[in-house]
Amino acid sequence: MSMLELPVLTESAEWSVRLIEADTAKVIAEHAPGRLLKTASVGKTFLLAEVARQISVGTLDAMQTITPTAADVVADSGILYLMKQKEMRIDDLCLLIGAVSDNTATNMLLRRIGLRAVQEATRELGFVEMECETAFA
Fold first, then answer.
1. Predicted structure pTM score
2. Per the domain annotation, does 135 fall within a domain?
3. Is 25 in the same domain as 56?
4. For 30, what's the count of Cα atoms within 13 Å in the CB-facing half-sphere?
5. What percent of the chain shows pLDDT beyond 70?
6. Which residues contact 95 (CB under 8 A, 6 or more apart)?
7. Cα dist. 108→16, 46, 74, 99 in Å?
């Protein structure tokens, strides 16, 4: 496969990308691949991956319930902050994170799993220059 043509963006746009062909590991497109940028909800993917790993090895019960603390709640993000039922099962929190990028659900789950565990999982997945640093606001 030849190199893909990437879009031309205005100079004020800061972006970085590297696309690698899965079966050959050949780079098929890139733009400033060494540039480190702040990300928004990418950290949620690593949180969900670590939750899935812990459930699969039996160290986390998907049916365990978690009640939000005041520090977990993020108004105007997702839908959990609007719901009457605040205590949620871990598997339902994962659904809210995956479906609507719910920051309250993310904070609740991050508090249960632990930031350190998510950071370690991120590195173990090969993302050594990326990490989640804080709760979601």
1. 0.78
2. no
3. no
4. 10
5. 93
6. none
7. 30, 15, 11, 16
